[in-house]
Design a protein that fits this description.
mainly beta, 120 residues, single chain, 2 helices, two-stranded antiparallel ribbon
């Protein structure tokens, strides 16, 4: 939407990537009346330069890499203060907290609970 403050006759152009530009001329702007101009743009293909994908970045070891990986044994779970609960024990690890009192969902280093995988 364009607000023109001056009375007069205008030439308007509308353009967008992927569409052919459209120009409308002799658009009169007068007092006490809104002037509405609608543009229909036709879809137009866009040509870009050649894109070359090189395998060097992805080559190398196909081993699965972990950002971090921690294991807890049975004795550590049994020694958890309160009740021997796996999720309660995980909350004692650095950077781990729980989402709320009513759920066992874990928040690790500020991430979302759905970003974690707990395998038992």
């Amino acid at each position: 939407m364009v607000n023109l403050l001056l009375i007069g006759v205008y030439k308007l152009s509308a353009s967008m990537i992927g569409y052919s530009p459209n120009v409308k001329s002799d658009i009169a702007v007068v007092t006490s009346r809104s002037t509405v101009v609608e543009f229909e743009l036709e879809v137009n293909s866009v040509r870009t330069q050649e894109v070359v994908v090189k395998p060097e970045f992805f080559s190398g070891s196909n081993e699965e890499r972990f950002v971090s990986n921690s294991s807890i044994n049975n004795q550590e779970i049994r020694n958890t203060p309160g009740a021997p609960d796996v999720f309660r024990r995980l909350q004692f690890m650095a950077g781990v907290g729980r989402a709320s009192e009513s759920t066992s969902a874990l928040i690790v280093r500020g991430g979302a609970p759905k970003e974690n995988l707990t395998m038992i």
